[in-house]
Amino acid sequence: VAVASPLYSGVWLLPAPQKANIINPDDFSALLETASEKFGLVIVDFPAGSDYTLYEKLPRSCDIVCVCNPDPVSVRDAAVCGQAIRRMGKKGYLVINKYSYKYIQNGRFKNLDDILNEAGLQLLGIVPKRDDFVYSFSTGKFPRHGRGARAFRRIYRRVSGESLPLPKLKKI
């Protein structure tokens, strides 16, 4: 069952199964082919550390967006994801989640250039680390204002084909 997203009209969400490893790869591929014919854009959220078996069942025309946090473990996982995307001959993008300028300045997280170099993927957007933003998702209410909402609007606009400059990193 698809449910309407509260942020943008025409955006639909199909939740993943509750149990792991129950998706038949061929059925998954057929579902994506059908969805690709009916919708202009289909986004599939794979869990971190996936074995990439289902990635190979994605339609040939699809691009892949990898989401990672700026911490070293997540960036290494994004690099592995980037390598898999390139091996499959697909176009890949990167969204950096839980970005904190303060943590990058004091060396807790890698800087933006290091993250992009290691992941080897084109940057699609940066989402700030904000506790109120994380809480809003747990309540099922997407925030319409603030830095997090602006970050998602920029990503949405880029996915829609608009070319936007990256905001100043302190402002994200």
Structure keywords:
3-stranded parallel β-sheet, 6 helices, alpha/beta, 172 residues, 37% helix, two-stranded antiparallel ribbon
TL;DR of this structure?
With 172 residues, the protein is an alpha/beta fold.
SSE arrangement, N to C: EEHEHEHHEHH
Radius of gyration, CA atoms, in whole angstroms: 16 Å
Apparent shape: globular
Largest sheet: 3 strands, parallel
- Rounded average pLDDT: 79
Helicity level, as a percent range? 25-40%
Helix and strand composition category: alpha/beta
* Distance separating the two termini: 34 Å
DSSP, total strands: 5
What are the segments in which pLDDT stays under 50 over at least 5 consecutive residues? none
Please count the helical segments.
Answer: 6
Beta-strand content bin: 5-15%
Adjacency order of strands in the biggest sheet: 3-4-5
Describe this structure in words.
The protein is α/β, with parallel strands linked by helices and 172 residues long. The chain is built from six helices and five strands. A three-stranded parallel sheet has the order 3-4-5. A two-stranded antiparallel sheet has the order 1-2. The mean pLDDT is 79.
Question: Which helices and strands, and how do they pair?
Answer:
Blueprint: E1 3-4, E2 12-13, H1 25-38, E3 64-68, H2 72-87, E4 92-99, H3 101-105, H4 112-119, E5 122-128, H5 131-138, H6 147-159
